[in-house]
Amino acid sequence: MDATIHKFRDASGREDRPSRTEAEDAVRTLLRYIGEDEMREGLVDTPARVVKAYDEMFAGYDQDPEQILGRTFEDVSGYRDMVLIRDIVFHSHCEHHMVPIHGRAHIAYLPDGKVLGLSKIARLVDAFAHRLQTQESMTAQIADQIQGVLKPQGVAVMIEAEHMCMVMRGIRREGSDTVTTAFTGTFSDEVAERARFFDLIRTGSGR
Ligand SMILES: Nc1nc2c(ncn2[C@@H]2O[C@H](COP(=O)(O)OP(=O)(O)OP(=O)(O)O)[C@@H](O)[C@H]2O)c(=O)[nH]1
Ligand SMILES: [Zn+2]
């Protein structure tokens, strides 16, 4: 499993980033490549729209996951049991074909004195989803980032996703989900904790 976390790059930091105009020209080239007339009325503004959409869909390269998780809370009255956020819907793009992946992430951790703001976990998913991804990398990146920043007793991540590159092209197989998991700490060591994680995802009543 490739757990490499893309290096945080700030918007101005990459000297080799093409300009907006160059990116729009590249879209015009693709329009011509598919057989379109990039000058026809309906397409005149399309390159600018596509680049704007890319800014949003790939905003993750300018987001620092560590900063997203930065603030933790310690005053949780001694709560030590599992915290599970399930069904975090996300949209991403596969790094092989640059077409959408859509799915759900289920993320749990066993606190060791500190907890995260709940919204920060969904923000973390978005930061990684808004980059080119493989499902395996994204799963490992989320687990490693939470483990690294929060240092809980363990992290469990499960992602279920559909890859449009398998639906719209190639094998053209609708409805198959890919499931990936990553476990650290107690979840990695103890089969019972993993079982409770799976139980809570499916039934909501692990104990
Ligand atoms: N492991 C993994 N594979 C993925 C993911 N997303 C897409 N793929 C696969 O990446 C592979 C790329 O295979 P290639 O043979 O290089 O490319 P291709 O000719 O477009 O492959 P086909 O999709 O089989 O037509 C395909 O099998 C895809 O299904 C992912 O998140 N993880
Ligand atoms: Zn693909």
Automatic annotation (TrEMBL):
It catalyses: GTP + H2O = 7,8-dihydroneopterin 3'-triphosphate + formate + H(+). It comes from the Bacteria. Signal peptide: none annotated. Pathway: Cofactor biosynthesis; 7,8-dihydroneopterin triphosphate biosynthesis; 7,8-dihydroneopterin triphosphate from GTP: step 1/1. SUPFAM superfamilies: Tetrahydrobiopterin biosynthesis enzymes-like. Transmembrane segments: none annotated. One of its GO terms (biological process) is one-carbon metabolic process. Zn(2+) binds at residues 94, 97, 165. The keyword Lyase does not apply. GO terms for cellular component: cytoplasm. Residues 24-202 form the GTP cyclohydrolase I domain. Keywords: GTP-binding, Hydrolase, Metal-binding, Nucleotide-binding, One-carbon metabolism, Zinc. Homopolymer. Toroid-shaped homodecamer, composed of two pentamers of five dimers. Belongs to the GTP cyclohydrolase I family. This is GTP cyclohydrolase 1. It comes from Notoacmeibacter marinus. The lineage of its organism: Bacteria, Pseudomonadati, Pseudomonadota, Alphaproteobacteria, Hyphomicrobiales.
